[in-house]
Amino acid sequence: MPSESVPSNLHGLMEELETVASRPGTLSVKQLRDAVGRRSFAPLLLLASLLGFTPLGVVPGVPTVLAIIIILVAGQVVLGCHSLWMPDVLLKRHIEKRDLKKAAVALKPFARTVDRIIRPRLFFLTQPPFSLAIAIACILLAATVPPLEFVPLVDMPLWGAMVAFSLALFAHDGFLAIVAFVLIAAGIALTCWALL
């Protein structure tokens, strides 16, 4: 059954995730989507990014599924959709509940710390047209995940950047969006410098 309310902070999102993972039966992507709300683009974007940054993100096939979710969600942000759509083939994919619950529990201390730091500021930077730039950045970053999936730890910086961007949208924290863009620019600069 879809959630009636959307988690208001990161710790609340982790608790919702733990609750969903504790229910009997199998766990599908559709259940995860419904847990954060059918119209909740930022929480689902954040959830997919965070899971990619946990040990669940090294399970074969999972990073690609998470990257596809991010591309679909961010793409709909770019298109200005008001309701989230996902293909049935993706919604029916199942996730290992035990691993998901472990990830949620492991992320709770991180969530509490982050909730104390992030807050609504520079709000306009998380609204159109700036939110479109964030969504496009997430799409580009997620598109690089599948080719790197089988190279251990190489994609961790990518997931970190996507977590920062999605947190910015989730908490309406424009300052965090600036930090994420600066980190990406620095990473690109360092990579170019190393290759030259």
What would your notes on this structure say?
The chain has one domain (10-195). The chain has helices spanning 10-22, 29-36, 41-52, 62-79, 88-91, 97-117, 130-143, 145-148, 156-171, 174-195. The chain contains ten helices and no strands. The longest helix is centred in the C-terminal third of the chain and has 22 residues, at 174-195. Helix 3 (41-52) runs antiparallel to helix 4, helix 3 (41-52) packs antiparallel against helix 9 and helix 9 runs antiparallel to helix 10 (174-195). It is mainly alpha-helical and 196 residues long. It starts with 9 loop residues before the first helix and ends with a helix.
Extended strand count:
0
Number of helices: 10
Unreliable residue runs: none
What's the mean pLDDT score?
82
Helix content: 55-70%
Please outline the major beta sheet. Answer: none
Protein structure class: mainly alpha
**How many individual domains?**
1
3D shape: globular
Element-by-element helix/strand order: HHHHHHHHHH
Radius of gyration: 16 Å
How far apart, in Å, are the first and last alpha carbons? Answer: 54 Å
Percentage of β-strand residues: under 5%
Oligomer: single chain
